[in-house]
Amino acid sequence: MLVEPFQIVGNVYFVGPEAEHSSYLITTPEGHVLINSGYERQLQTIRGSVEKLGFEFGDITIVLGSHAHVDHQEGDAQIKAVTGARVMAMEQDVPALRNMTPGDKPHPIDRVLHSGDTVQLGGVTLTALLTAGHTKGCTTFTMEAQDGDRAYDVVIGCGYGAGGRDLVNDAEYPNKPDDYKRTYELARTLHADVFLGSHGQHYGLLEKLPRRGQGPNPFIDETTLPKHVNTYEKQFQEELVKQRPPAR
After folding, report:
1. Is 1 a member of any domain?
2. Quick check: helix, strand or coil at residue 18?
3. What CATH code is carried by the domain that includes residue 14?
4. How many domains, the chain?
5. Residue 152 lies in a domain
6. What residues are paired with 88 via a beta bridge?
7. pTM for this structure?
């Protein structure tokens, strides 16, 4: 389902490409940050969204991603080719991204991030936090957005979900359950006036959209992040019980 681009809060915008997958534009006077490039086939949709909002696609100077899955970062090389933007990624996801080569294009990585690193542009500071489990380098970004006379804590989360994933028999990722547990613990320490995620259902996109312009901004809701963590931690625990046979 296509969703029209819109301002979420301050300089943070939803730019599609659809309800299922979420890409975000963080605007600054010195260029813009794009979080999640999506599939290559979604480039024109994202570009159209950026331009509908009145911004130049070529002014994107930094590309970030929530995690190394094709539905969120396949388009990195394509967007870099169009805009010249620097692509940055969490260290633990670099190997997976290096293997993501649509059309045999090498995956660009211009800066390797480590948990706690900051990305700064035009007076905006994003902090990259390792919230591993969904992938080894799953990354949550935090920032402050000024809207009118107020500043809001914005958290753009990685996928915290574990449903249907191999948690205990993944030879390439044996510490996955421990990483998920650390992620939920870290996520509970974060404060988010606005919580966003890599998929619309993570933050109630379709439920909140109809309420835009009908009163207070529905995306400013500090209960969204705790609810999200509770839901996905419960899912993780249930999945772990199913995959680990009871002790005898």
Report:
1. no
2. coil
3. 3.60.15.10
4. 1
5. yes
6. 111
7. 0.96
